[in-house]
Design brief:
With about 170 residues, the chain is mainly α. The chain is built from 9 helices and 2 strands; from the N terminus they run H-H-H-H-H-E-E-H-H-H-H. It has a two-stranded antiparallel ribbon with strand order 1-2.
Length: about 170
């Protein structure tokens, strides 16, 4: 397995932070038609450059938000109660979200694969949130601004989106 040079992407994100933040702010305020079509196209381009399996930085440095359904599903898989699962691995953060107590994620294997992939939290399944129907909300809530320094795919996505959309904003 060829591990992705995450530090290289983090340095690039730091260099471009001002420009990318400005772009995302404009994008969040815009009503650009066809944004979901463009994001779907850009999404496909991103995965030609970045492989999650070569990175897993999201699992190493970030934590998903768990829903009650996620917790019940995963606890059931382990044949433990909601409370047992919660007490062992989870906590509530300052935003009142339920998250992992620690990073890296307890379910990340040494091979960068999720050991509960088939039943992982919805937040993990939809990460990095490029093609969600609430894309504009994600931009306004600064989800991409935050993730760009952790997730090489998010950096590449925002860069490519900026290249495609800058003239329209």
């Amino acid at each position: 397995m060829a591990e992705l040079n995450v530090k290289k992407y983090q340095r690039r994100a730091a260099r471009k932070k001002k420009s990318l933040t400005k772009f995302l702010k404009k994008l969040g305020k815009s009503n650009t038609r066809g944004i979901l079509k463009v994001t779907a196209e850009v999404d496909k381009e991103v995965w030609k450059e970045v492989s999650c399996m070569d990175c897993a930085n999201c699992c190493k440095k970030m934590t998903p938000t768990y829903t009650r359904k996620d917790i019940n599903r995963i606890a059931g898989h382990f044949k433990i109660t909601y409370k047992e699962f919660y007490d062992k691995w989870l906590k509530v953060d300052e935003n009142k979200d339920i998250i992992n107590k620690k990073t890296p994620c307890q379910f990340l294997g040494k091979d960068n694969k999720c050991t509960i992939y088939a039943i992982r939290p919805v937040d993990c399944a939809t990460f990095p949130h490029f093609t969600r129907k609430d894309f504009r909300y994600q931009v306004r809530e600064k989800v991409f601004n935050q993730n760009v320094s952790y997730c090489p795919a998010t950096l590449v996505f925002v860069e490519k989106l900026q290249e495609r959309m800058e003239a329209d904003l």
